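Whiteboard transcription, Tuesday session. T.W. wrote the C-alpha cells on the left side:
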C-alpha cells in the first residue's frame, strides 16, 4: 500500500502554512519531499527559487529559539563570551532582559542591537538561529 502524496500550502513569503492531500484547496501548493516531517519541518520549511526551479529548504530560519538553544549556538560559534561582554556594557534593563529571557526572537530589538555591536550580519544571525533550533 503506497502512502498518499502530501502537499504543502505555500504562503507569499515561501513559508509553509499548511498541508494536506488535496493540492486544489491551496492557493499555492508544492509536493512535499519524502523526508518532510511535519513535526520537525512545518514551522521552519521555506520554498526557495524561481517558478519551475523551486526547492524546499526544510530548515528555514526559525523566528524564535529558546534562550538555552541561543546560548548554546553562541557558545558553539565562539561568540558567547563576547556577546555577554557586550551585554554587560548595556543598560541594566538590557542585562536583566538578556539574563532572564526564556526565548530569543529573531526580530527582538535587543538581539538586533547586540548583533550589530558584535558586527554580525543578518546572514550570521540567521545561521545562528538555524543552528540553535537543532540544539
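and on the right, the sequence the group agreed on:
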Amino acid at each position: 500500500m503506497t502512502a498518499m502524496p502530501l502537499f504543502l500550502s505555500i504562503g507569499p513569503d515561501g513559508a509553509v502554512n499548511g498541508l494536506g492531500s488535496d493540492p486544489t484547496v491551496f492557493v499555492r501548493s508544492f509536493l512535499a519531499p519524502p523526508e518532510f516531517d511535519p513535526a520537525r519541518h512545518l514551522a521552519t520549511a521555506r520554498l526557495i527559487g524561481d517558478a519551475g526551479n523551486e526547492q524546499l529548504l526544510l530548515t528555514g530560519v526559525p523566528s524564535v529559539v529558546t534562550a538555552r538553544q541561543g546560548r548554546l549556538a553562541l557558545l558553539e560559534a565562539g561568540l558567547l563570551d563576547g556577546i555577554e561582554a557586550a551585554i554587560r556594557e548595556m543598560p541594566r534593563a538590557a542585562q536583566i532582559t538578556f539574563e532572564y529571557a526564556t526565548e530569543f526572537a529573531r526580530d527582538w530589538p535587543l538581539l538586533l542591537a547586540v548583533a550589530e555591536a558584535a558586527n554580525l550580519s543578518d546572514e550570521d544571525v540567521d545561521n545562528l538561529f538555524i543552528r540553535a533550533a537543532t540544539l
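Someone added at the bottom: The chain has a mean pLDDT of 87.
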